[in-house]
Specification:
By secondary structure, the chain is an alpha+beta fold. The chain is built from 8 helices and 15 strands. It has one domain. The protein has a 4-stranded mixed β-sheet, with helices on one face. A 3-stranded antiparallel β-sheet has the order 7-8-9, with no helix packed on it. Helix 5 packs across helix 8. The longest helix has 24 residues. It is globular and about 60 Å long. It starts with 13 loop residues before the first helix and ends in an 18-residue tail after the last helix. It binds zinc ion (3 copies). One zinc ion binds next to loops.
Length: 354
């Protein structure tokens, strides 16, 4: 069992900053830094509203039992994992059907796959399965790429074995991001559907002269392939003095910038955003220069989710967004392992309503 529960605490003010007051969330810390929260009392779906705008939907724990770690083979009952393409016990091929949020066992049927869990559907693997980079399914005769891979705009040269390994690792993190976005009902359009703001990924290998900068611009998320190298990523983490640095964390942060564009910019929630996060019209380049020169102001942890969130209101939003996704997924995992909050305390701030 993973080391999860340390102690339930009150929801810090920074999380409601993003999602609004959600009074019945408990809150725990893992390993001293990664927060997670959960509720057992939510109705079937809780809509997180922000200035009247639905920004996300939360599905309560009972439904979340089918988490990454606890899918089970619908053929033999074996515990299977999100990235599995075959059941180790019964040998059935497995694929993830995003429309059903199910990792299903598959039987070959004249060039396609069928599943007892999806009667009447004929499925094939995403085209990236041939590179061992995807186990998601698409309807036979439809798009070649799955709901997650259709956003890929540039992938590295896969004839280079190191590139292939790093890209496969990036794809694993990307799938977990996409899983969350689909589950939360967030808008997901690619560049064909929305040429201005559609979501696209560019996974770029460093060339010898110019290092690739991980970042977001107008729906295009660029990820440096070098970040998939654990040793290199750890070196950067140490250099930046960060408590943790993960590929999935990069995705969650950059997608936060994308959803700021879609959900906040020029939307009625912009005023509310400025009240909570500050005025994003502050010079971005100057703000980052100041942050890298001076670091975060003393006591930043009383007002921000991370030191970097102090750099600029856009970064505050992206960091808060990323941590919200950390929380949701950690809760899902904790719930899947049967962890429940039942604090014995007279402190009403810590009590979780029954
Ligand atoms: Zn099986
Ligand atoms: Zn795919
Ligand atoms: Zn950022």
């Amino acid at each position: 069992m993973p080391e999860f529960l340390v102690a339930p605490v009150r929801l810090p003010s920074l999380i409601p900053k993003l999602i609004g007051p959600v009074a019945d969330f408990g809150f725990v810390y893992t390993h001293g830094f990664l927060p997670c929260c959960w509720t057992e009392n939510a109705p079937i779906t809780t809509e997180l509203r922000w200035n009247g705008l639905v920004t996300a939907r939360v599905v309560p724990l009972g439904f979340w039992g089918r988490a990454y770690a606890t899918f089970s083979c619908d053929h033999c009952g074996n515990t299977i994992y999100f990235e599995n393409a075959v059941c180790e016990r019964c040998g059935h091929a497995l694929g993830y059907a995003p429309q059903a949020n199910a990792l299903v066992s598959l039987t070959e049927d004249s060039g396609a796959w069928t599943s007892p869990a999806l009667p009447g559907e004929r499925l094939v693997y995403c085209a990236n399965a041939e590179h061992a980079a995807c186990n998601w399914l698409v309807p036979e005769g439809g798009e070649a790429y799955c709901a997650a891979c259709r956003h890929n705009e540039i992938v590295p040269d896969l004839s280079n074995p190191e590139n292939l390994l790093h890209w496969q690792s990036i794809e694993r993190a990307k799938k977990r991001l996409m899983y969350s976005l689909i589950r939360l009902g967030l808008p997901l359009q690619n560049r064909v559907e929305d040429p201005q703001h559609g979501l696209a990924f560019r996974f770029l290998a460093d060339d010898q002269t110019v290092p690739v900068m991980t970042g977001h611009e107008n729906g295009i998320i660029t990820i440096s392939l070098a970040e998939a190298d654990d040793a290199e990523r750890e070196r950067r983490r140490t250099q930046m003095g960060e408590p943790y640095r993960t590929m999935l964390g990069h995705f969650r942060h950059e997608i936060g910038h994308h959803y700021w564009d879609l959900l906040v910019d020029n939307k009625p929630s912009l005023d509310r955003y400025r009240q909570l996060f500050g005025d994003e019209r502050a010079d971005y380049g100057e703000a980052l220069k100041t942050y890298y020169a001076n670091g975060a102001p003393d006591g930043w942890y009383n007002t921000h989710i991370s030191a970097y969130a102090t750099a600029h209101p856009w970064e505050d939003f992206a960091e808060s967004w990323a941590h919200y996704l950390h929380i949701v997924d950690t809760v899902e995992m904790a719930a899947a392992y049967g962890i429940r909050a039942r604090p014995r305390t007279g402190d009403e701030n810590l009590a979780i309503p029954r």
